Amino acid sequence: MQLNKFTDIGLRVLMYLSQSRFDQQVTIDEIATTFDLPRNHLIKVITRLNKLGWIKATRGRNGGLELNPESLQLRIGDILRELENTTELINCEKPMCRFHGDCLLKGALQTGLESFYAHMNQHRLFDIVNHNTREKIISMHKTHAA
Fold first, then answer.
1. What contacts 49, CB < 8 A, 6 or more positions away?
2. In this model, does residue 55 exceed pLDDT 80?
3. In whole angstroms, how far apart are CA 121 and each of 76, 80, 130, 131?
4. Dist CA 142 CA 24 (whole Å)
5. How many angstroms separate the first and last alpha carbons of the chain?
6. CA angle 124, 127, 135 (to 5 degrees)
7. Cis peptide leading into 95, omega within 30 of 0?
8. For the chain, what percent of residues have pLDDT higher than 90?
9. Are 39 and 29 within 8 A, CB to CB?
10. Are 119 and 78 in contact (CB under 8 A)?
11. What class, spelled out in words, does domain 5-145 have in CATH?
12. Angle formed at CA 38 by CA 35 and CA 41, multiple of 5 degrees
C-alpha cells in the first residue's frame, strides 16, 4: 500500500508546523519552497487540514499557518484514515468481479487495512516529531528564515 500524494503532503505540513515558532506564522510559499511542492496542490491540502481544525490558516498580509496545539495528540492512523479517505482497498462491484461472492480476498484486505490503521494509531503526531526529526524541522525553519 502506498499513501496518496495528498496524504503525504498533509503529514509533512503537520510535521513542519509542529515546530514553527508561535511568534512567526508559516506561509504557504515557505512550505511549497521547503518541500518543492506545487502551490495549487498544497492549497488543497491546507484547506482540508484547516477544515478539520488541525491547523489554523489566517488570510491576509500578516496571515499564515499554525498548528492547532491539540493536533500534536492526533493519532497517525486517524490522520491517515481521514486524509486517505480509504474505507476499502478493492471494490468487487465496479467493475463487477467474476469472483464476487466466492472470494475471501476483499475480507483479508479489509482486515489488513484495519490492522494497519490500528498499528499506526499507536503513534501520535507528537511522537513522530521527536528527537532527530524535531531538530531537522527546526533546522529547516531556520534555513528558510535566513
1. 10, 13, 14, 55
2. yes
3. 5, 9, 16, 19
4. 12
5. 38
6. 140
7. yes
8. 62
9. yes
10. no
11. mainly alpha
12. 110
Q: How far is it, in rounded angstroms, from Cα 84 to Cα 125?
A: 16
How far apart (Å, rounded) are the C-alpha atoms in residues 58 and 46? Answer: 11
Grid coordinates given for 127: 511522537
C-alpha cell at 136: 531537522
Closest C-alpha to 14, from 46, 38, 41: 46
pTM of the model as a whole: 0.89
* HEC letters along the chain: CCCCHHHHHHHHHHHHHCCCCCCCCECHHHHHHHHCCCHHHHHHHHHHHHHCCCEEEECCCCCEEEECHHHHHCEHHHHHHHHHCCCCCCCCECCECCCCCCCCHHHHHHHHHHHHHHHHCCCEHHHHCCCHHHHHHHHHHHHHHC
- Name the amino acid, one letter, at 83: L
**pLDDT (tens digit per residue) in 94-136:** 888 888 778 899 899 999 999 999 999 999 999 999 889 988 9
